[in-house]
Amino acid sequence: MSNDIIIIRGGSGTGKTTLAASLRPHFPNGITIESDRVREMFNRLDWMCKESYTTVLEALAQIVSFYATKNNRPLIVVDTFETVYLKYFCSRLPSDLQTVVISLYADCYSVWARMRAREGDALLEKAVLNSITQGQEQPLTGGDALAIDTTNLSSIAVCKTVLAFLANRIS
Fold first, then answer.
1. By CB neighbour count within 10 A (0-12 exposed, 13-18 middle, 19+ buried), where does 34 fall?
2. pLDDT tens sequence across 50-97
3. How many domains does the chain have?
4. 148 - beta bridge partners?
């Protein structure tokens, strides 16, 4: 079983971007695509509007599909991906690609501390609320999914956990 697409999901401050950056050196032929970069391409976007968000997910799926034809592996995709949107996104990917979902979560105190260190007070309330919302969702688990509580883990430990999980899927 291959790891064609690695989806990293979770609320703000759970370590998604850090994990993606930590994985890059291990996959020199891979590509990392963050939904935030795709979102920035749109001049006007209302994130409270479901249609706006699904438009970004469709663009993201098209980018992933394009790079898949170029044999770049794995394609690491980073977004919050609430469950309903994750299913929507995955339904737009080529069916022959093997997708792995890594769900990150942390307690609200850890998210608060991480966001405060990273962005100051402006986004703290939103980040903590997102963390609580993500924490209330059932983390995906099973053969193609891994959920990691990053609350008390270093970024190195999270990366090692993911690499071991990916290696076990291939063997």
1. middle
2. 777 888 899 899 999 999 999 888 999 999 888 888 888 999 998 888
3. 1
4. 104
CB neighbour list of residue 149: distance below 8 Å, 6 or more residues apart:
105, 106, 107
Whole-angstrom distance, CA of residue 169 vs CA of residue 153: 22
Q: What sections of 24-107 are H helices per DSSP? A: 35-39, 50-69, 83-91
pLDDT at site 119: 59
Percentage helix, strand, coil for the chain under 3-state DSSP, each rounded to 5: 50, 15, 35
Structure token pair of residue 49: 């509007």
CA dihedral over 8, 13, 14, 20, signed as positive or negative: positive
Q: Please compute Rg for the chain using Cα positions.
A: 15
pTM: 0.84
Q: Encode pLDDT of 108-123 as tens digits.
A: 777 777 777 765 555 5
CATH code of residue 164: 3.40.50.300
Answer positive or negative: Cα dihedral of 83, 89, 91, 97. Answer: negative
Residue 28 amino acid letter: P
For 69, the domain range is 5-170
